[in-house]
Amino acid sequence: MTQLLDHPLGRFMEEESPASWSVIPAAAGFVRLSTGNLLGSKVSELFKHFAVVLVYANASIMAQLLKGSGLTPLLVVPPLRSSALTAYQALKQLLLDGQLHPTVANIVLEPTVSAAMPSSLPAQSLLNCATTFLGYSAQPLTITASARTDQSWEDVDRLALQLLENAVQLERYPTERAH
User: Fold this and answer.
1) What is the arithmetic mean of pLDDT over 123-130?
2) 10 Å Cβ neighbour count for 9?
3) Judging by DSSP bridges, how do beta strands 74-77 and 103-109 pair with one another?
4) What distance in Å separates the CA atoms of residue 40 and residue 119, rounded to the nearest whole number?
5) pLDDT tens, 138-174?
6) What is d(CA 70, CA 22) in angstroms, rounded to the nearest whole number?
7) Average of per-residue pLDDT across 16-35
8) Is the Cβ–Cβ distance between 123 and 106 less than 8 Å?
9) Which of 88, 43, 45, 97 has its CA nearest to residue 69?
């Protein structure tokens, strides 16, 4: 993304219709943008041909990029014991550093006879700590991870709709021209 930010006219040389899915490595670009406001930057011009842009970043960068924007980032809690601690750290950064209130997605495994721990333990631990230490309560969305694709479509559709409800349209800026 840094190349696209540094050379704004270069993107006009590219094909006008992008692929259905494009992945743009952006860690360095996000670090550069984190000194300002992602929504107030000219980054929207980079994605003008896309209907939806998903930003995947760690919580500290996300808190800086979206600080005070009112957006609702997604915080995923996988079904691992260590997930509660890392999710709590991310939640704390989003809440305190970014004033962001994330949607918590509790990923649970399809129930099996050999399940060693309750599927909701990491998310429940996260929510207990968030309530106790941060005074924050959330209602997580449960997403069932299943080998059968038809099993989890309902959960994923519900999550996608909730995320789209909290989406924001990026502003359009005129392209900078070199003279």
Assistant:
1) 92
2) 10
3) parallel
4) 40
5) 888 888 887 766 666 788 888 888 888 877 666 655 4
6) 26
7) 65
8) yes
9) 97
Measured in degrees and rounded to the nearest 5, phi and psi for residue 142 equal: -95, 125
Rounded Cα gap, residues 33 and 173, in angstroms: 16
For residues 122-135, average pLDDT: 93
Residue 151, both tokens: 């099993």
Tokens of 13: 């040389």
pLDDT of residue 179: 42
User: What DSSP character marks residue 42?
Assistant: G
The runs of H, that is alpha helices, within the chain are 2-6, 27-33, 59-65, 83-92, 98, 121-129, 149-165
Q: 118 Cβ partners below 8 Å, 6+ apart?
A: 124
Nearest to 135 by CA among 97, 169, 96, 171: 96
Would you give the DSSP letter of residue 45? G
